[in-house]
Design a protein that fits this description.
The protein is of the alpha+beta class and 128 residues long. It has one domain: Dimeric alpha+beta barrel (Alpha-Beta Plaits, 2-Layer Sandwich), CATH 3.30.70.1060. Helices cover 28% and strands 34% of the residues. The chain starts with a strand and ends with a strand. This is YCII-related domain-containing protein.
């Protein structure tokens, strides 16, 4: 099994009415329920936007430095995501496609190249 991240950037979401948001949210949650029933669901969250940024943190002489900004200048930021644990890329593509169709905007698919085991050793995801 391998872990895959299915994610979208907030700017990919079209302008929606409140009713559209509710409808697409219900459709997305239905796909998450399917993932859960299939035993591939790990975690998801969504509804992030630029206003949810809490702080910026940079390394400073071996210590973290927290500030209220400035944040990275970019239009792109994470809008939401799901993590699935599936046997292969075809299955990951299937679930990414199901989410894209359910919510009506693009998704990106990324494979986590390694898993960290309790021993702390890195192992290829295909070892899992």
């Amino acid at each position: 099994m391998a872990l895959y991240l299915i994610a979208f950037n907030d700017e990919w979401v079209p302008d929606l009415t409140d009713d559209d948001v509710r409808e697409r949210g219900l459709a997305g949650r239905a796909v998450i329920e399917e993932m859960t029933d299939a035993g591939v669901f790990v975690f998801s969250d969504g509804g992030l936007d630029a206003s949810t940024a809490v702080c910026s943190v940079v390394p400073g002489g071996g210590e973290p430095l927290f500030t209220d900004g400035p944040f990275v200048e970019t239009k792109e930021h994470l809008g939401g995501f799901a993590v699935v644990d599936v046997p292969d890329e075809d299955q990951a593509r299937y679930w990414a496609g199901r989410i894209a169709v359910a919510v009506g905007w693009p998704q990106e698919l990324h494979r986590f190249p390694h898993r960290v085991r309790l021993s702390g050793d890195l192992h290829p995801a295909t070892d899992a």
